[in-house]
Amino acid sequence: MKKLIIPVIVIALIVLFGSCGSTKKIVYFQGADTIDLSQSRGLYDARIMPKDLINIHISTSDPNAAKPFNKDINNNNYGMSTESNIYGYLVDNKGNINFPMVGTIHLEGLTTRECEALILSLIKPYMAESEKPVVTVRMTSYHVTIIGEAGSRIIPVTREKMSIVEAIASAGDLTMYGKRDNILLVREDKNGQKSTHRLDISKADIFNSPYYYLQQNDIIYIEPNRSKINRQVINDNSIWLTTATVIVSLGSVILTLIKK
Q1: pLDDT confidence of 37, banded at 50, 70, 90?
Q2: 69 and which of 46, 58, 82, 159 could share a cystine (Cβ 3.0–4.6 Å)?
Q3: Is residue 199 scored above 50 in pLDDT?
Q4: Contact (CB, 8 A) for 69 and 58
Q5: How far is CA 7 from CA 11, 15, 17, in A?
Q6: What is the mean pLDDT of residues 156-174?
Q7: Is pLDDT at 242 greater than 90 in this prediction?
Q8: How far apart are CA 206 and CA 180, in angstroms?
Q9: Burial label, 163 (beta-carbon count in 10 A; 0-12, 13-18, 19+)
Q10: Within its chain, how far is the Cα of 260 from the centroid?
Q11: d(CA 224, CA 182)
Q12: Are strands 143-148 and 219-222 parallel, antiparallel or unpaired?
């Protein structure tokens, strides 16, 4: 009995330290009580990029005054360009749209609020002051994509603002096999140039990251950890292991029969 005590203690210690180590890899936002979050201060505003789809609506005290500027989905004859449709305006590769009456407007790099102010200034000359035009702009194509150990989803962003944490929650959270300390973010800028960034949501410092808030068309990939990879390798090789076992068993039977 005494000989068994030491092995049991060793196994218990291995399990204990192993579980502590695995817990650190699974828990989110470690150090949240001590980290300085002053760097995260500020409200995020998405900025319009080429290939964004935006909806623009003009309202006035006199509906007829706004009619030339708004798309009529039943009768599209109010100076609509071919790029406009019932879904909105597609920003071209130069960051422009062709707006009724006004013509080409450069929107790249603007927030929706800044876009509203710009369009308002451009349509005012066509209206009387008493008509009090109001411009409303919304980005309708804003989405992010998440794949890997959190499922695979294209997530629409209706509020023009989404954090990496919100994206993961929308996908149903990471599985136990997802790497929380090495999340890959693929981002494309206004010129089509891709860049990659690594995020660690197991540390509370993620709140200070410049990539905490996602941009439109961001791709998030959750890599599998070593346990998942090993498990997959075992599953892939199970048929070969089974075959090898059968061959060994048959070999043993044959050798037994020969000896007899």
Answers
A1: confident
A2: 58
A3: yes
A4: yes
A5: 6, 12, 16
A6: 95
A7: no
A8: 11
A9: middle
A10: 68
A11: 10
A12: parallel
Angle at 60 between CA 54 and CA 64, to 5 degrees: 100
Neighbours of 100 (CB within 10 A): 19
CA 238 to chain centre: 35
> Whose structure tokens read 């702009």?
137
Quick one: average pLDDT of 127-146?
Answer: 93
- Are 93 and 50 a contacting pair, CB within 8 Å? yes
Q: Quote the tokens at residue 155.
A: 């997530």
DSSP per position, the chain: -HHHHHHHHHHHHHHHHHHHHHHHHH-SSBTTTTS--GGG-S-------TT-EEEEEEE-SSHHHHGGGS--SS---SS--TTEETTEEE--TTSEEEETTTEEEE-TT--HHHHHHHHHHHHGGGS-GGG--EEEEEESS-EEEEEETT--EEEE-TTS--BHHHHHHHTT---TTB-SS-EEEEEE-TTS-EEEEEE-TTBGGGGG-TTSBPPTT-EEEE-B-HHHHHHHHHHHHHHHHHHHHHHHHHHHHHHHHHH-
Neighbours of 20 (CB within 10 A): 9
pLDDT tens for each residue of 184-196: 999 999 999 999 9
Contact 96, 106 (CB under 8 A): yes
pLDDT at 76: 46
How far apart, in whole angstroms, are the C-alpha atoms of residue 75 and residue 65? Answer: 17
DSSP string, 40-75: G-S-------TT-EEEEEEE-SSHHHHGGGS--SS-
Q: Which amino acid is at 205?
A: D
Q: Residue 87: which of 56, 119, 63 has the closest Cα? A: 56
